[in-house]
Amino acid sequence: MGSTDTNNVKKQLNHNNNNEMIREYGPNLKILPTNDQVKELQTILRDKNTSRSDFKFYADRLIRLVIEESLNQLPFTKIVITTPTGASYNGLKYQKGNCGVSIVRSGEAMEQGLRDCCRSIRIGKILVESDMDTHEAKVVYAKFPDDIADRKVLLMYPIMSTGNTVIKAIAVLKEHNVLEENIILSNLFCTPPAAKTLVSVFPKMKILTSEIHNVAPNHFGQKYFGTD
User: Which residues, 6+ apart, have CB-to-CB distance to 93 below 8 Å?
Assistant: First the structure.
């Protein structure tokens, strides 16, 4: 089989996988395009033998890929600029009114990746904790830009096992008059139950993840911040 035939087979497999994903989770859940590099990063982060320094380095690489793909979900406007040679160029620029919100603490690991791509972007925070007795998730702290209701929100949370923490965080955003369709959830690893729950509860929200897998690497926050 030649390289052209192999590429055609890969394209057909990706097309079939995309159709299957849409049937399973709807059109607003998207997975980072998978290649060998992405799979290697996911493997390193799941390996119990990965050192903390390596874990943080490769986590930051995967975060950057996920953030950049998440930014593709934001709206752009057309613009015509003049090049140094005096020629006109038809380009694009982000529409104004974007911000990030991290779900503390593990979501803070994604903040630098967002700043590396959008250096002046404003970032809010939400802290969700589980009750020691009832194990129910509750919001204990939230800080947003004053005009967050008028912004597109990139919500950052790397690991989703059940989706309960994210549900609480989105409820707070909606209490601040953020439209569901203006929320883009940026995630690294998600379980099928969490994905199904979120697309069911928030069908207008966009979700971008690197992987949907039955086992989530729940050690992520402890390993990334060195608290394991």
Answer: 76, 77, 79
Q: What pLDDT is stored for residue 4 in this prediction?
A: 58
pTM of this structure: 0.88
- 3-state SS, the chain, equals CCHHHHHHHHHHHHHHHHHHHHHHHCCCEEECCCCHHHHHHHHHHHCCCCCHHHHHHHHHHHHHHHHHHHHCCCCEEEEEEECCCCCEEEEEEECCCEEEEEEECHHHHHHHHHHHHCCCCEEEEEEEEECCCCCCEEEEEEECCCCHHHCEEEEECCEECCCHHHHHHHHHHHHCCCCHHHEEEECCEECHHHHHHHHHHCCCCEEEECEECCCCCCCHHHHHHCCC
Measured CA to CA, the distance from residue 154 to residue 126 in angstroms comes to 13
Q: Which pLDDT value is given to residue 13?
A: 46
- The angle subtended at Cα 95 by Cα 92 and Cα 96, nearest 5°, is 140
Express each pLDDT in 113-163 by its tens digit: 999 999 889 999 999 887 767 667 788 999 999 999 999 999 999 999 999
CA–CA separation, 45 and 159 (whole Å): 12
Residue 34 pLDDT grade (very low, low, confident, very high; cuts 50, 70, 90) = confident
